[in-house]
Amino acid sequence: MLTLLDQLDKGTLWRSPGGIHPPEVKFLSNATPIGQLPLASTYLVPVPQVGENCTLAVKVGDKVLKGTPLTQGTSIWHLPVHAPTSGTVVAIEPRASNHASALPVNTCVIAADGKDTWCELVPNQLDDLSHQQIVDKIRSAGIAGMGGAAFPTHIKLNPVSEIDLVIINGVECEPYISADDRLMREYSQDILAGIGIIHRLLAPKRIVIAIEDNKPEAAKAMQAAVNQCGLPAGSIRVTVIPTKYPSGGEKQLIQIITGREVPSGSIPAKLGIVVHNVGTAFAIHQAVTQGKPLVERVVTVTGKNVSKPGNYWLPIGTPVDHVLTATEFTPEAEQKVIIGGPMMGHALANIQVPILKGTNCILVPSSQEIGSAPEEKACIRCGECATACPALLLPQQLFWHAKAEEYDKAASYNLKDCIECGCCSYVCPSDIPLVEYYRIAKSALKQAADEKQQAERAKQRFDARLARLEEEKLAREAKAKEAAERRQATMTGTDKNAVAEAMARIAAKKAAAAQAATGGATIEQPATAELNATATDTTAAPKGKAAVAAAIARAKAKKAAQANTESTKTHSVETDSAQIDSSANVDETESATDVIAQEAPLSQKDKVAAAIARAKAKKAAQQTDTAPLEPTETADSTSELNAADDKKAKVAAAVARAKAKKAAQQAETNAENGLNQTATPAVDSKANVQADVNDDTEAAATDINDAEAIKKAKVAAAVARAKAKKIAAASAESKTDAEIESVDVIRAEANVASPSIAATLDTATTEADAVLPSQGSAAEPIETAQLSSEELKKARIAATIAKAKAKKAALAQEANASSDSSVTND
Amino acid sequence: MAFKIASSPHVTRNLHTSTVMQRVILCLLPGLVVQCAFFGWGTLVQVLLAILVALSCEAAVMKLRNRDIKTSLSDNSAMLTAILIGVAIPPLAPWWMIVMGTAFAIVIVKHLYGGLGHNLFNPAMAAYVLLLVSFPVQMTTWIAPSTVALHSPSLVESLQLIFNVGAHVNMEQFRLGIDGMTMATPLDTLKTDLSMGLTTTESLTKAIFDGSTGVGWFWVNLAYLAGGLVLLKLKAIRWHISTGVLLGLFVASSIGFLLSPDNQASPLLHLFSGATMLAAFFIATDPVTAATSPRGRIIFGALIGVLVYIIRTKGGYPDAFAFAVLLANLCAPFIDYYVRPRTYGHSTN
Fold it and tell me: Which residue of B has its CA nearest to A409?
């Protein structure tokens, strides 16, 4: 850096590649002092102007004074906007923006009262302020880069890295514009005061004020001011650079002054360099020492079609048409109104737009000065553009790919490093609007990048959801396991009774099953009645009862589903009531299933279900029959019976699952038909599952293996829940509120269902555990009181094997689940 | 009122393709005049004939392509191609050769490849090569420069020869030098002499040579050089390609000459013989078929220079620019791909 400093002190200049020398035409506007224009009747202040997040500090009807902040915000990027004159806020609404697109932006419309009264200004003594206070004042004054880019100045004054060199940009290389020129000539002292503040904040080793050699008066004035200022000698100098467009570009100026290049995609601060515009330095001085917010700036109004070209102090928010009227603008056919210079400025379609903080020029040229663009001709690859490009790009290659819409190839030629200075278009002998092609290519690339990012985000969301579901599943399993362990730990010797009870129940069941088998082999309806009877009469045969109940619940669910698929809107009322019914089922427990068992109409499905139950019972009975009747061997038969029961339960659960699945599928396919129609099957299937679970809970009191069934039922319930959720999600997209409400109902039910299932599971597990040792005790009835841990273990292994078997059978069953008859034939 | 909107920049330099081409054509004139002075009216006749054919072909193709004929003709590119073919072929070559060559250049080499800006090969040189390989005798039959010729053709004689009317005019009589020998071009003469075992010095004593360079050819080259320098000054062309060509040829021929001065032409002879200056400033600089980046253009030019030297020394043809330019045209996309300037803010690799 030391050698660089030496060279800076010597005034060494480096060559910036490319560049052009367009006609300057600054004489139109730079001869007269900066003037004032009469106040406009209304001012249009876009809110926010720089930065994104802000809240309005005023509302329609508020009286404001010149300098009253219109916005407030807390974000570091927030930059307040201030009322440019005193008056009333008459509207806050979208108005056309001062942008090539003219897209409407939120604008605060202020009707001027003509008094132009300042709000209370607090002048400061610079020495009394801390650095932070100064930066805060600059920020609250709303100062943004005045060179055109309007980057918030307080951020550049608060860099993370150390700043060695500050370049004050008075180059003003764009043709026609002379705002900085006049400002430097007339306010050099104030600019130097502002530079002094920058010096204090950043403490750079050197400050270089760069001015093009076509502004000798400005350079002289600045040199004089530098000689008088109190900054340390040798730390600040005025450097006159050769006139060439675009020397005033930040990157180009840094290259000319220091010979270094700002790395692509980086900022000058990385090199320890900060560039500020002279206008910004002036505004900093105004803000810090006088407390004046940034409410006006110097704007060049020029071109052959205004009678009074020159520089004017214009309040920010002044409509362009007011400015042009006041400077006696005479439009011609196909008139261009350009904001900024002829090289980089944008043409306005609508001049009812405001002057902004970065607006430095309004150019209204005659058609002799700036004609309409000639027709584009074929590129002859002359390479003039490459010679003119200050970024050392190959513009004709970029054009080639941009025109062919091969944007990725254009990107590979470093399209993003294009500064859109317009040199290539300027020199093109074929009149190709190269910069326009690059802008289109850039926005296409940006859009593609945005879309890619969105897709990426969607994928992340999806993955997160999958992970969450998996986690929930694991958590549920872990919880169940924990509960099981807890219960096992708290187990007592009274289990003997449980075993005895269980044995009694099994005996009763056997009897009941045998009865059912003999009673209803051929005539189905009476058999069901019988079953019902057993269900009510015999407390020892909960399994059969449960099966019937489950079957009925299933049938009901299916019926409801079928009804729903065919139903019209009037039907949906009915299904609603069905929904309520099933909700009731969810809420109630054993008794509810009983009620269903007795009340549900016996349809074909019920009969089939009953038949299944019968078949199962028969099988169980057969098994019991084959088993020897000796008491010592009861245990074996018990376990066998248990296995059979297990199978049965599994079959029931599998059928229930299949049903639930079917119903859910139906619900899905019918999703278009209306929410009520689709949602109900899901709810019903849930109820169905619930019923199964409840039944199984009962059964679990007698049967160890019902825990398994519960588990499965739980899974089925979870599936149903998931389905319900899915439907809810699907319906969330549907239009009517009513539908959305019903989704909420379903959600609520799903919520109701899940705890109850959990509770059921808990009970089931407890009971299952309670029954567990009974196997061991049955094997050795005499020593049941002294259950060794080894026996427990054995029992558990046996149970696990049984479970595995059950699972296998269940799988097989599932394969056959589509036809109920196949189950019956089993 | 609604105002006219347009994308920036709103100003252009107003140096259009047609102007650039016009300047190139104007800068060709000194060379053309000198060439006519040494080799008679034939060259002028050929040029005019070529222009006529080129413009007709251009208009016909534009009509077929449903494009605007006037815009296309006014860009002057067809005319430039025609003039280049006209000055390149022997002054008294029969008319059908220039017609065929020019039509080939415009219709096939230029427009079948997409028209202005899209052609892969330099149209004038492609046409020249077509004629050279198809009609080698006619294409190598140059007449003796007027200062050393027994007879120089008058305008009428030139027309008679070109259009093949009037039986009493014979091509051979204009090829006789003052020594009564049939004259070839200096490069051709040297090549033949060297192959016959003569040394360079011995060959240079012949009448076609003026001490160290060919009679007439030196001045023709000098005139094209002057025109080229004006072009550079006008910024109608950039220095990279021309410098590359001349440097490449100079360096290659210097090395050859230093290694064996007895059977190699001197660098001076190479630089001021044949089509060297014409090609270096007016043919190789055709932007459409050249490399695009400044560095790439230097490489492109140097490639032409070296190729010219190799073909002149080792090849079967006495002059080599047409082949060298076409070969370099082939390499241009490759050069462009690998020689890209380092973009601002990017590291060197």
Answer: B337
